[in-house]
Amino acid sequence: MHRFFLKETFAKEMTITGLDAHHIIKVLRMPVGEKIQIVSSDQVSAIMEISALTVDAAFVRFVDYIEDSHEPQVEIILAQGLPKGEKMDYIVQKATELGVTAIIPLRMERSIVKLVAEKAEKKRERWQKIVAEAAKQSKRDIIPQVMPVTSLKQLFASYNENIIMAYEAEQTVSLKSVLSSLKPIRQIILIIGPEGGIAKEEITLAQNSGVKFVSLGKRILRTETAGVAAIAAILYETGDLGGHK
Fold this sequence. Notes:
This protein has helices spanning 18-27, 87-98, 117-137, 152-158, 175-182, 200-208, 223-237; strands at 3-5, 13-16, 35-39, 45-53, 58-65, 75-81, 102-107, 145-146, 150-151, 163-166, 187-192, 212-214. By secondary structure, it is α/β, with parallel strands linked by helices. The strands form 2 sheets. Strands 6, 7, 8, 9, 10, 11 and 12 form a 7-stranded parallel beta sheet that branches. Helix 2 (87-98) runs parallel beside helix 7 (223-237) and helix 5 packs across helix 7. It starts with a strand and ends in an 8-residue tail after the last helix. Keywords: Cytoplasm, Methyltransferase, rRNA processing, S-adenosyl-L-methionine, Transferase. Its main location: cytoplasm. Residues 17-59 form the Ribosomal RNA small subunit methyltransferase E PUA-like domain. Its EC number is 2.1.1.193.
């Protein structure tokens, strides 16, 4: 069943317009009587039935509420060092499918990509569209937010606890052990460096900000793999991906 995120608060009868209406009418060619899932702006999830169609609008009416939440109990914010090429497209898509709450693109010293303000905003808008599509496909209850491109210093000014950084030089502290020490966990900020790794100055800044460094295992992972692997491990350890509390 297809899921749509609506910008209006929930009502027993609602009207879908814009790109979603185009998708329902022109792309999916849904008939009157077809059922869809919606998530309203006040985060009500429900099954709705198409009651009428016009050229540019789909009218839907309430069938039943969706009580089960599709969201993890732990909020994961992925702070991703900017990678080159199209890698960020993949990262934001897969992170959304797994269940992150937000994604912060990080401008780091060894990032190959250097985005000026205007270009950075255009990229952010592109990533937000990819996230929205991934949220629909994976039946999320929210659309995660892609935040503006920021620096480590700005990140640490906004968050000051439960920050973990995957660091290839860390040989002894596992992600699992750090997660156990943090329980109960409500929110985690996960920092993943870019292809070039994390600079010494950034490591020092992170240490002074109370960041916990973790190993993701004996093998060196690419930046587009590391975040996905770490998110999956966090969800497993917190009982949200086949794990057990």
